[in-house]
Design brief:
two-stranded parallel sheet, 44% strand, mainly beta, single chain
Length: 675
């Protein structure tokens, strides 16, 4: 959002809406005189509404370069030095707790390492209408403790980004190249070529790129408008070869001879109503078409073609390896002071070409699309009542219905949240099979796919100077419920047994009794889930920076699985309690001390195979995590440190499957200086 919008938003935050009745309620001991008459209050409310419309106008024109005096050409140089420290009492070495999903692995994933990064950005504005910039960014993986690193040169180039032996050398990479022009021609507001974070659309179509890839996405973007009527944005975006098509990492797909990555693209558009077109109602139509093309090997001009019967003519026929279409229509109504509405309808269509895509669903079960042509819809409706008759008490209600075959192939993968609920794991909920729970640390949030979710959420909130509190109730049934699903087409991401262990998660969860958070499909499913969540934040004036936070959650999860038998019926009660106490120990230094206790009671969590007779095991899991967090800020210098202990006890109905894990000591710290 440009600076003018930030200023207006800040002004609005200091100017709350009020009614004449509210203005007569004064604190005890203050003057009985009313500061504004009803007529004056109506005038002020009118000005407030004008400011809100102006905020929406500025946001609608966002991403155009800020106008600067044309006679002042400027060049801005910014730098950032960053070092992350990881420690755990195990034998792994690396800089990322949960690493890259490449099937051949990586060597920067691990819990013991200290890795520095350097980034230098330059932004030039030769005239008021033009802005251009780039970023020099060191590649991650160089170890702080190694004085000599020569990388890991592989016999052949692969898709792991490490095969050329430069993974530990700390090379500098050119990233973030862009040029932006404001008002280049009549009817064109701005044009942008190069890097962008793709934050224009939504999680159901084209999603904002996650932080670690924020300077990688590139495209051509053109913004136009019909004054006071519509804002229009169109774009052609380079398709990510790793996750934006019908297979993870097409470079290693044996069905492809010569991938045309430069031709593969996302074609996206947005049409949004102007702030004053429909009073108090904003409509936004988002759309995206993904086209992944490859050379048709039946053409003698195609690389790898064995067609010698036809003559070559210098023209190569193309085959659409994967086509995907996503669209969403959202409506935001804010015309009522006591209530607001926000709704969304979305559709998705994915069509992989089986001649040119390897079927990983039937192999590893690890693929980001269904291996079939599928179409489905999704919808959400949220109602918010900020004042529920009592001061500080508000209510939020949401209905959601995500189709079993809905999939936003290039939607938001992380750092997003489309539902009101806290969810099963306390992170964000996203409508894609591409949820990216890799390349993160143990302290980061995990995101879950909501494909197939159907239900509702109610949240009652209270806010005051002393206390913030909320209570959530959510019920979920599943559009993915099915008996005898063809798992040769639907990915299971390595399994679907029981509640996911995220604290001690490993990639694909092949060893930690869990399942991948993207796993939404099972051969047999008949599931219901109930969530109860309570949060409390107390801000007493007892010591500097005093803050006491408490969270409690209970999840009731039941899945009949194969309905022809009762032996595999899953029934779980998942309970979580978390307490933290914060304080400002010194100026600029804040500490937080706390602990989290989890208790899981799972009936028929997983199957013990062997002996000729299937046996479903029950598990009781107890996990304790005390922790300490610190944060220090001195101008452009920020240092943080988080350390925790983990102890997990697992008691199974078959004693040989019981075990204790811990005492695990793990920590993550960082130092960052901007200059």
């Amino acid at each position: 959002m440009p600076a003018p919008s930030l200023a207006l938003t800040a002004l609005l935050s200091l100017w709350p809406a009020q009614t004449p009745e509210e203005s007569t309620s004064l604190p005890e001991g203050e003057s009985e005189s009313v500061p504004f008459t009803p007529e004056q209050l109506r005038f002020l409310d009118g000005m407030r509404e004008d400011l809100e419309r102006e905020v929406r106008r500025v946001e609608a024109k966002a991403r155009g370069p800020l106008v600067r005096p044309p006679e002042k050409s400027t060049i801005e140089v910014k730098g950032e030095a960053y070092t992350k420290f990881l420690f755990r009492n195990n034998s792994s070495q690396g800089c990322v707790s949960y690493g890259n999903p490449h099937p051949r692995g990586d060597n920067f994933s691990g819990d013991n390492g200290a890795c520095p990064e350097l980034a230098i950005s330059m932004i030039a504005r030769p005239i008021s209408q033009i802005e251009a910039g780039f970023r020099l960014q060191s590649r991650y993986g160089m170890q702080f403790a190694d004085y000599f690193e020569n990388g890991d040169l592989q016999p052949r180039t692969d898709g792991s980004s490490e095969s050329l032996g430069q993974n530990h050398s700390g090379p500098i990479q050119l990233r973030g190249i862009y040029v932006r022009v404001s008002d280049p021609l009549p009817l064109i507001d701005w044009f942008h070529a190069g890097t962008d974070d793709l934050s224009y659309w939504d999680a159901f179509t084209v999603g904002k790129i996650r932080y670690i890839e924020r300077f990688n996405a590139k495209g051509l973007f053109l913004k136009s408008s019909v004054p006071e009527v519509l804002d229009v944005l169109i774009a052609r975006i380079a398709l990510p070869k790793l996750w934006g098509t019908a297979n993870y990492n097409s470079l290693d797909d044996p069905a492809i001879v010569n991938p045309f990555w430069a031709r593969d693209a996302i074609y996206a558009a947005q049409i949004k109503t102007a702030p004053d077109l429909i009073p108090d109602l904003e409509l936004t139509l988002n759309g995206a078409f993904v086209l992944d093309e490859e050379a048709d090997t039946d053409d003698p001009d195609a690389p790898g073609s064995i067609n010698t019967a036809d003559l070559r003519d210098g023209v190569t026929a193309m085959l659409a390896r994967h086509r995907a279409l996503n669209g969403s229509l959202s409506a935001n109504y804010f015309g009522l002071d006591f209530m607001s509405f926000r709704g969304l309808l979305a559709v998705s269509h994915n069509a992989p070409e089986v001649q040119a895509v390897s079927n990983l669903a039937a192999g590893s079960g690890f693929t980001n699309v269904v291996y079939d042509t599928v179409t489905d819809v999704a919808g959400t409706l949220r109602v918010e009542i900020p004042e529920l008759g009592l001061e500080g008490v508000g209510l939020k209600l949401e209905y959601f219905n995500i189709g079993a075959d809905f999939n936003a192939i290039v939607g938001t993968r992380t750092e997003g949240d489309v539902l009101l609920t806290d969810g099963l794991f306390g992170g964000g909920q996203l409508p894609t099979l591409n949820v990216a729970n890799e390349l993160i640390d143990f302290s980061d949030r995990f995101y879950e796919s909501i494909i197939g979710w159907h239900g509702g959420t109610g949240v009652l909130e209270y806010a005051s100077n002393l206390l913030d509190a909320s209570v959530e109730f959510s019920f979920i049934e599943y559009n993915t419920d099915l008996q005898g699903r063809d798992m040769a087409k639907y990915p299971d991401f390595g399994g679907s047994t029981g509640y996911t262990e995220t604290d001690l998660y490993s990639y694909a969860n092949t060893t930690d009794r869990g399942r991948d958070l993207r796993s939404v499909y099972a051969q047999n499913q008949a599931r219901r889930t109930l969530l109860l969540v309570g949060k409390l934040a107390l801000k007493p004036d007892l010591w500097p920076g005093a803050r006491i936070e408490l969270k409690g959650k209970t999840v009731f999860d039941r899945d009949l699985r194969d309905e022809s038998t009762e032996t595999d019926d899953y029934d779980a009660v998942i309970m979580q309690a978390r307490l933290s106490i914060g304080a400002e120990l010194f100026e600029r230094l804040n500490l937080s001390l706390g602990a989290q206790l989890d208790y899981w009671d799972e009936v028929a969590r997983s199957e013990l195979v062997g002996g000729g007779q299937p046996l479903w095991l029950d598990y009781q899991t107890t996990k304790l995590r005390p922790f300490l967090s610190a944060r220090y800020v001195l101008g452009p210098f920020v240092a943080s440190y988080h350390i925790e202990l983990v102890q997990r006890d697992v008691v199974a109905s078959v004693p040989t499957q019981s075990y204790t894990q811990g005492l695990i000591v793990r920590s993550v710290g960082s130092l960052m200086a901007q200059f």
